[in-house]
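Inputs:
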Amino acid sequence: MKTEKSRILRGMFFGAGFVALAAFLFTGCPSQDRMMDTRDAAQKVYVAPGDHDEYYAFLSGGYSGQLSVWGLPSGRFLKVVPVFSQDPETGYGYSEETKPLFQTSYGFIPWDDSHHPHISQTDGDSDGRWIFINANNTPRIARIDLDTFETKEIIELPNTGGNHASSFVTSNTEYVIGATRFSIPYETDLDVAIDTYADNFDGALSFLSVDPDNGRMDLKFQIVVPPYHYDLGRAGKGPSADWVFFTTYNTELAHTMLEVNASRNDKDYIAAVNWRRAAELVEEGHGRTMSAEYYHNYYEGNQGYAVSNRKDEVTVLYPEDIDENFMYFLPTPKSPHGVDIDPTGEYIVGGGKLATVIPVHSFSRMLEAIDNEAFDGDSRGIPILDYDATIIGEVEDPGLGPLHTEFDGRGYAYTSVYISSEIVKWSLDTFEVVDRIDAYYSIGHLMITAGDNVNPEPRYMLGLTKTAKDRYLPTGPKQNHPAQLYDISGDRMELLLDFPTIGEPHYAQAIAADQIKDQVKQIYELEENDHPNAILGVADNRVERDGNNVHVYMASVRSHFRPDNIEGIRVGDTVYFHLTNVEQEWDVVHGIAIKGAENAEILVAPGQTKTLKWEPQRTGIYPFYCTAFCSALHQEMQGYVRVSAADADVPLTWRTGTN
Amino acid sequence: MKLQSRIAMAVAALMLLPLYFIPFWNISMTAPQYPEGIGMYIHIDDVQGHNRHDLRSINTLNHYIGMKEIHAEDFPEFDIMPWVIGIMIGLGLLAAVTGSVKLIMTWLILMVIIGIVGLVDFYMWGYDYGHNLNPDAPIKVPGMSYQPPLIGCKQLLNINACSWPYTGSIFIGISVLGAAGIAWYEKKISGI
């Protein structure tokens, strides 16, 4: 086992000096401010009123915690799917049904930072069943159904700090991955001095299986790895489909001032993990069972209240426990960010964030190096492969700060370059840059239509940038993050469209609209409504008292509630409005809001049941109304609740009908 | 009667069989809010929405102007019509077996009477449905009634309603025309 210390000693200059060098290096070849003839560009993005876009694009919400849905090429905003943050607009995270989704081992967490949406795959291509997305801050992974565009499941990752290398799926959605970006002590709640980092901290790589029938996730195992920072991950494809790859930085084991201290080493690693073998090792009993507290939240049926299951142990693989090697480190310059696998599964592209080249490893050479044991030491029992044995190309002159790469399936790769704010297109054959184009400004991820699939669709590329500055009408010191749409169907990239987005999109995914639009549900079938407090016919409306809890079983249909007059509620009661929207017509939504409720409204889709909790604090008459403009008589869709004193003897009554 | 004519008459009678499976009338409606359309198919024993929940939606919309809800079980016609069609098939087959041209003529006259009674009944239902409105209806347009068209299209407030025969009626048409042709042919050859 090789220690980290020798590497830590190998410092090199950075900071201002590096930037100065970079400025010198790159002044000779600025990328071009190039846009297609305006009329041609307009024609390419024009989708006539009433017509549909060719692609659904799913953009992570970043610090909004959500997932936004857009049409491409028009850049039409379609919807925000609330995932990790409460959404008062829809009542997500406020209704009793959705609150359990927010449960974690730290309690109810109302917000998170969502980064990398990834559509479920079959044979390496997006299949449109589900989309997964990670929460970075309180590490979690969510699953969203692509027939209802609703979050159906959230699972917490224990022993993980910053779940960033997530939520990427393997070629047949066997697993969705997570990893520690900020290494922490593996044991929960371990109270140690921070400067004992090297001794007490660990990294954790998480592998969650996905039930092929219903998408339900299960944390099958974690691998405990050296306390580097595991930044991004990707599953292999085709020949490399049994592997996943993670980038690492902070192999220096810094725990303070990381911008300097974690940027010293010339090379960090890409970790290559044979997940299929690791899963077999777990099956064969090589894992340790360790205590770990985490929550798994999901819906058991079509509807109803999400359940929160507390889990208390996890199966863990320690590479040093196991004689057999199932993971390797590939030295990669320098604090690599993205790791992206080309459509053939052969090329492993590192985004050498601080490197002056884009390093490309060969999967087949990696296997050869493993066979030949071309090792350059090891780290905690994990072999480090010889750099020269796995590297197949270094793309020169890629700009400054290459981050992420996607592919067009025609032999070209497209890498986003943050500091020099551009996208470079390079050949997977010659490893030479063939085209470059500006990004506005400071690009993070880029996304090509199906660009991470085995069969990319080289139509459009979306650049997701970090600052808008002067691109749009100014909207104050903090502006929304931009996206730029490029046409990549020709030899040269051409800018088509530039539009502001929601939150801070990191990664995005696009899928041909035809692949999912016919599966999208228009209503929830009332007949299949399995909510325990649903009323399937308006005649079943009623109010029931159970101690201090009052349950209102209410129906909404254009344009009234049943019941709409309720008396006999007392201060101190907790009132639950179980509202069933008995409409069975697409997009006829009803909502409910009640004066003074310390809660949001809730919106209820046709055929759906949702529960609004209300704890009236004062006596009085409380109007409630339908918040959705459901019909011409929408404002008549209202009612009253009478709240009496705690000791009042007003009988509980309810009615709807004649005055 | 010639053997061919008998077989043809049997086929004409059996042409009514599809009525047990497919609708014979269609009422379709469009409105700005219903780009996809909404409507109902009328069978001899049922009324069904074009889509699964169309009847429910039609009933929901119509309550604003005070129209009654449409429920298949409220129509005695749906209990009677399968028997009527069954009897006509039987009678037609009987005519084929016996080779009686008179029976074919009787069958034809009955079919015409059934058609007229059916249309009159449909008109009367439509009249009642469109005129007999709930006085508590939220939307009242003075002088406006909502009788659906018997045949053809009609604008009713925001809804354009069209009423036309549907696939089942083609089979009725083939059946009646076929029987009439056989009767005409038999009369012609026997007349020579």
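The first helix of chain A runs from residue 5 to 9. Flag for discussion at group meeting.
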